[in-house]
Amino acid sequence: MRAISVIVAGMALASCSTAPPMAPTRTAAKQVEFQQLLAGKVAQRPISCLPHYYANDMRIIDDNTVVFRQGGSRVYVAHLNGGCSGLGGGGNTLVTRQFGTADLCSGQIATVVDPVSHVTVGSCAFENFQPFVRPGA
């Protein structure tokens, strides 16, 4: 009887394991947009917080990648931990809430909301922000 309990407990524990993360699904058009945003720019040291005024020009690349533009010479690439399911397909909105600071920081949780029904369809957390800068800018 004890052996059956151990087997059942093991099966329950195994069913809780997570699948390996899936590679982002990016359309050909979004891949071209991403490459154009990074063209001619060099990666800089990642930063943990992005000033709120840089978040005004946001480009959704896929469920795992968001790019924030700061003019034509600098962009910040943010990867989303866990992926925001339903974000890359278009039509949904990425919503963040600021607590204690107006900046957008690593670890901050974002939700994906259907703007018509106002239903949350996914959530994720921001990782560090990778700046890419045009040399000489």
Describe the structure in brief.
The protein has 137 residues and is α+β, with helices and mostly antiparallel strands. The chain has helices at 2-15, 28-38; strands at 42-43, 49-50, 58-62, 65-70, 74-81, 93-96, 104-105, 109-113, 120-133.
Which terms summarize this structure?
alpha+beta; 137 residues; 7-stranded antiparallel sheet
SSE run:
HHEEEEEEEEE
The number of E-state strands comes to: 9
Please mark out the parts with pLDDT under 50 across 5 or more consecutive residues, or reply none. Answer: 1-22
What portion of the residues fall into strands of 2 or more residues?
35-45%
Q: Helix/strand/pairing class, anyone?
A: alpha+beta
Total count of helical runs of at least 4 residues: 2
Largest sheet: 7 strands, antiparallel
Helix content: 10-25%
Mean pLDDT: 81
- Report the end-to-end length measured between terminal Cα atoms: 71 Å
C-alpha Rg (nearest Å) = 19 Å
Task: Give the overall silhouette.
Answer: globular
